[in-house]
């Protein structure tokens, strides 16, 4: 133990004197993707986690990074293993010679950090080596010594340009920054703001994705401050797509093949930028900075049977990451049902873009859920001259049909000239689907789960046909009955009926 302390003190002394400086190296052109293989690309090929074979597979996949975990044995060997125990042996109380009596499941011996770095530098044109320094279970001081030894070894092997350091121990990262100023570092624990990371010289926030959902403002702050954004450990397509929509630089995953497959399809890599969203990662009433209500007994001229309430969690409430718009059998103001109609009017309006809403619809005869848009000039020129875009409409007596429609002065349902088309689905009530439009000056595409099922083209006639060159606002509502929804009556056994909305996202062209 005395030899360890002297070695660590010598490294710190050399650094403080300016002797430990990075040697000149050719810069590495890392892969142009966001995929960090967690403990290597181990899962698909059933390789041991943190093995050299898993590292080599991540390199073969051309992941932009491959993460691994560093611990230190009782005889000061830096080794690669995630857990504090290996084959039931406590690593910090066991010599390396005793540990390697037990091979990995593929026959490899437990690799040292030296062996792992050398393997990671061989025939590797594009993959970062993401080095997680595990805190010591013996003492904070020992964790600092592990960090110092790792930095010295990386320097010795001239691997500095390839390595990113990460840790759950904030002091370990501060030690690394002191030893190697400017080296990439990312904090894992999720309890420091981007402002604090910046102040302490930490260059990245590598937090569990739930932290960013809880504190979405940290995403904006990190981008403003130049703090790299990473999220761990993301293994499902839905979360990957959310992180990509928010343009994270890195995503750490046990499913690198899935992320590599999804990445080229994401909107933000295909000319779009996320400009507005609500992920509903909060509790209670809808966010008043994003949504307003359209309360009252109005039915939009459709003879609907509901009274729309405002600020009432019985009709609109957010919980467990989902907005629920609830229609109930309840008398209010000469109406037999209550529900909610949310809108971004006076909050946000958009001209052109891609609008996506992931939702699960209510079942039952008499329901009429809708995701739609109106022109902001509706008060001055009224409907239908203002224009209407119905991203999704469904009536409960047609269990398998989703409609996408436009209305204008020339084309509207009063005249029977509306432009509309349906797509068929077997499960609108049991699964979430993504309902979307892609709206440009030339056309509006209506999309469900990535499939374009209706396209309305600009005929370049007059504003009577195409009023869709002006700002529109978004609306989410669940109507009951009415001229279309109530055509076959209302089944009172279905109440309460609920439309669930997982998220709403608006993209615009860069």
What keyword list fits this structure?
510 residues, 13 helices, alpha/beta, Jelly Rolls, single chain, TIM Barrel, disordered N terminus, ten-stranded mixed β-sheet
How would you describe this structure to a colleague?
With 510 residues, this protein is α/β, with parallel strands linked by helices. It folds into 2 domains: 2-14 and 34-264, Alpha-Beta Barrel (TIM Barrel), CATH 3.20.20.190; 292-509, Jelly Rolls (Sandwich), CATH 2.60.120.200. The chain is built from 13 helices and 28 strands. The strands form 4 sheets. Strands 12, 14, 15, 16, 17, 19, 24, 25, 26 and 28 form a 10-stranded mixed sheet that branches. Strands 1, 2, 3, 6, 7, 8, 9, 10 and 11 form a 9-stranded mixed sheet that branches. A hairpin with a 2-residue loop joins strand 16 and strand 17. Helix 1 (2-16) crosses helix 5 (140-156) and helix 5 runs parallel beside helix 6. It is elongated, with a radius of gyration of 28 Å. It starts with a helix and ends with a strand. The model is unreliable at 1-24 (pLDDT under 50).
SSE inventory with pairings:
Layout: H1 2-16, E1 35-37, H2 52-60, E2 65-72, E3 78-80, E4 85-86, E5 89-90, H3 96-99, H4 113-121, E6 128-133, H5 140-156, E7 163-167, H6 170-179, E8 185-187, H7 194-199, E9 204-208, H8 209-214, H9 217-225, E10 228-232, H10 237-245, E11 251-253, H11 256-262, E12 272-278, E13 292-293, E14 306-308, E15 316-319, E16 322-332, E17 335-339, E18 341-343, E19 353-360, E20 367-375, H12 378-381, E21 388-393, E22 401-407, E23 419-424, E24 433-439, E25 443-448, E26 451-457, E27 472-480, H13 482-485, E28 497-509
Helix pairs in contact: 1-5, 5-6
